[in-house]
Design brief:
Helix content: 25-40%
Distance between the termini: 72 Å
Strand order of the largest sheet: 1-2-4-3-5-6-7-8
Oligomer: single chain
């Protein structure tokens, strides 16, 4: 009887671990299905923006018209180790096609293939590629916004704050004469200071919070070391580290009951940005009763709000 109980407990424990892992990788429910792009007429898929890895590819979606179009750079989430440029995370960005935006969705090297800073190297290489090919695809090279959720939110924020940071740019990936700066950032529930996450989740008193300061957390796997053993790497991966007065405007949104990425990280990022670039350039919204993602992010009302923010800085 004791043996059966132990087996039953072990089975439950395995199922719990499996469920937790699936939730981490999924980020939010939309990621489990592909975005519907069948009706989009003007599109180019799987274009290489660099040649170091098979992951370094992008998809282009254009609206009707002559352009040049401001560009939404869509950066998927997935715990830095999963996700895809065509999964459901792309769906809200595609709303830009009806509003006069080009949408460029990218893949980048994931943590099982390459450790940080490979991911931000790839994001910036994609931005440089967009500028180098602006004329061919009717992009406006002076109006590019980075938008992503979770890991994609983190990389969007990091692209926004580290525009001229040489250590976070690999010019050998291509188009070295082009700028990798972006002109706006939409950061949905991205992590910031990895070492603070466990403490912040504990403060929120949430059920089943994810533990980050362990060797096999997504953040530890991203930098290749246990977080507590690598404070300098944790500092290097934190978007807050690079904030300067010439950073672009930010829209930051986060759920208050996020049990994977604590909302306090977004609060701190917004506060530090506001102190340097000005409160008028930083919008922070916290959604009650929303976990990691959630319905509040993709409602029609919120999508209108996101595009009002983008219009303000990319169309005027």
């Amino acid at each position: 009887m004791k043996t059966r109980c132990k087996i039953h407990l072990l089975q439950n424990w395995i199922l719990l671990i499996m469920f937790s892992t699936i939730f981490q990788i999924s980020s939010f429910a939309q990621q489990l299905r592909k975005a519907n792009t069948d009706q989009i007429k003007l599109k180019w898929l799987d274009i290489a923006y660099a040649t170091t890895s098979q992951a370094q590819k992008l998809d282009i979606y254009l609206p009707d018209g002559d352009g040049p179009f401001p560009v939404i750079l869509s950066i998927h989430g997935g715990a830095f180790k999963a996700g895809d440029k065509r999964d459901g995370q792309l769906t809200p960005m595609l709303e830009g096609l009806t509003r006069g935006y080009a949408v460029v969705s990218i893949n980048y090297r994931l943590s099982p293939e390459a450790k940080f800073p490979a991911q931000i190297y790839d994001v910036k290489a994609a931005v440089r590629w967009i500028r180098a090919n602006a004329k061919q695809y009717k992009f406006n090279p002076d109006k590019i916004a980075a938008w992503g959720g979770s890991a994609g939110g983190h990389l969007s924020a990091l692209a926004g704050t580290s525009g001229n940071v040489k250590e976070l740019e690999d010019l050998s990936l291509g188009n070295p004469t082009q700028s990798s700066r972006v002109q706006a950032v939409v950061d949905w529930f991205g992590p910031t200071n990895f070492l603070k996450m466990d403490e912040q989740l504990k403060e929120s008193n949430l059920k089943n919070p994810q533990t980050h300061s362990i060797p096999d957390s997504p953040e530890s796997e991203l930098i290749g070391k246990n977080l507590a053993d690598a404070p300098e790497l944790v500092k290097a991966v934190n978007p807050e580290t690079y904030i300067t007065a010439d950073d672009p405007p930010f829209l930051i949104q986060h759920g208050l009951i996020d049990h994977l990425v604590p909302y306090q990280g977004s609060v701190n990022l917004a506060s530090k940005l506001s102190a340097v670039i000005g409160k008028q350039k930083v919008t922070l919204e916290l959604f009650e009763n929303n976990d990691h993602g959630g319905p509040a992010f993709t409602t029609e009302q919120n999508i209108v709000k996101v595009f009002a923010f983008l219009d303000q800085y990319l169309k005027h």
